[in-house]
Amino acid sequence: MINNMLTANPIDLSTRFTLSVNQLQCIRDDRILFENLNFSVASGEILQIEGRNGSGKTSLLRILCGLALPTEGSIYWQSEDIAALKGDYWENLLYVGHLAGIKTELTPLENLRVTQALMMKTTGIDLEEALKIIGLCGFEDVPVRTLSAGQQRRVALARLLVCDVPLWILDEPFTSLDKAAIQMIEGLLDAHAQRGNLAVLTSHHVVNCQHARCLDLNDLP
Fold this sequence. Notes:
Distance between the termini: 42 Å
Number of helices: 9
Order of helices and strands: HEEEHEEHHEHHHHEHEE
Radius of gyration: 17 Å
CATH topology of the domain at 2-8 and 15-104 and 165-219: Rossmann fold
CATH superfamily of the domain at 2-8 and 15-104 and 165-219: P-loop containing nucleotide triphosphate hydrolases
Oligomer: single chain
């Protein structure tokens, strides 16, 4: 069902997307989190960032989103520096942070309406259907503050079904989710990659996706 829904829109596999990192360094509080970091992610790939607590995983994702600056190095989207692209880059990505990033006084449905209004490109999916797929049927119209941590995480991740962008950047997307929900998100990731898109995520959970590979920040040379 997930794959059918995500592939409802026409797929243009002639468009190849690439996110690349060149000689990236990040220093926080006079401590080097990582340096000389180089990697690239292309269409059809899912990159899982691993590392011990404090190794810089969240800092790296924030840098990839343009929410923070690296101490040194550059990030390129389609071979162009994201510092120059700015809005043209941001409209191609969806970032779901470690915190849910949702309005707890609003309902799940209202939160998705806000997302839909803010995004340049949407999938066109019915928002109630998106909440049903994500496992929130019957909770569409209750305040988010009354939901469990796992349900609130599902509200945040429902944006994956609404936003039609090639690049997903996800910080610990499986936090507070049960086994069934984790498998569903893994299915979304695989379907996203099969459409010729790409994703970068952090997780302490072993991601069971056909298109996933790992980069451990603690194994850098």
